[in-house]
Amino acid sequence: MAFPYLEAVIGFMILMYIFESYLDVRQHAAHKLPTLPKPLVGVISQEKFEKSRSYSLDKSYFHFVHEFVTIVMDSSILYFRILPWFWKRSGEFLVYLGLNAENEIFHTLSFLAGVMVWSQITDLPFSLYSTFVIEARHGFNKQTMWLFFRDMIKGIALSIVIGPPIVAAIIVIVQKGGPYLAIYLWGFMLILSLVMMTIYPVLIAPLFNKFTQLPQGELRLKIENLASSLKFPLKKLFVVDGSTRSSHSNAYMYGFFKNKRIVLYDTLIQQCKNDEEIVAVIAHELGHWKLNHTMYSFIAVQILTFLQFGGYTLVRNSKDLFQSFGFDTQPVLIGLIIFQHTVIPLQHLVSFGLNLVSRAFEFQADAFAKKLGYAEPLRAGLVKLQEENLSAMNTDPWYSAYHYSHPPLVERLAAIDASDKKTE
């Protein structure tokens, strides 16, 4: 008797849903707490705390509904064999168009087109409610309905342009990869990721946001001096019009080798009281670069990607696995989808481990900024970002440990306030 792969996958999905719902309930209870955590009393205003509490509870209620609908829909799609049914229908659609359904590339693209339409339809109500009800209610949403749908249409158009060549390449690699399939797939994905990281900020991101050079002035001079003191090869310093869509704020850097760029959200500049707070946030980001966190993270992702492709090569020819999910044939894309479902337990463990590493990196980057003399402005900047983004003030330790890639504000402030000896 063949192993019941499908039933095992659905069973684990439901178990993980129950476990994560338990964590969500714990976090929801933390959101309901009527008082600030002691370390934040006198640091965060009561008005901001009440607004944060209300925002967090609204998002939490929405999350419960969204996750319930998602698990019901995903488990139903697997249990009632909708995937193989849809695969057959996509082949019939090709025949209707006069195309060859035996061509796996055409068949796969037809299948993905249907999946994209389905996902857009099912995700749209949640996206609209999140953006135009929850985010708008709490003063974050700045985009119009036209801008929302324009972004969605641009995203679909990009998928239509970029997706088919990538899908076709993966199918050809799998069909002809032989014993070195994992290496070929990994190599292709490595090159693809490098290409996308290169063209995304230059060609794709500007389709959605406007990037302008940070004007000459004291802020620009301070950031350039900081970058120069650390020998950070800063080539361009941009401001992005994040305020056209949301009042949430952020900053990030990107680029390879000697071509680094820093991007500030205009909302970050508007919200911080002085330039020192913004520079302190940049010092934190440069700490990630100086401490090689970006490189370590990239290497970790590449190792995990290679291991995943190695696992895929071991199971891709398993007829029992495909038949358990309702497939008579063994298409490349379907094999990848099935494999992703079968390694869900490992994915959760890996995600938890990566979160632990990420949290450690955040503490180290904060300590780096502190050593540069930015302890007080960094502290003030983190508090300001917490207030203006209405981030959760009270967090459940279990939920935080499992989900958060960044430590809660209370823990970061405690680390910054600690003595230099203890921080080291």
Automatic annotation (TrEMBL):
Its EC number is 3.4.24.84. Belongs to the peptidase M48A family. This is CAAX prenyl protease. One of its GO terms (cellular component) is endoplasmic reticulum membrane. The chain crosses the membrane at residues 6-23, 61-87, 155-175, 181-203. Zn(2+) binds at H284, H288, E362. Keywords: Endoplasmic reticulum, Hydrolase, Membrane, Metal-binding, Metalloprotease, Protease, Transmembrane, Transmembrane helix, Zinc. Its cofactor is Zn(2+). The active site is at E285, D366 (proton donor). The keyword Membrane applies. Pfam families: Peptidase_M48, Peptidase_M48_N. It is an enzyme of class 3 (hydrolase). Proteolytically removes the C-terminal three residues of farnesylated proteins.
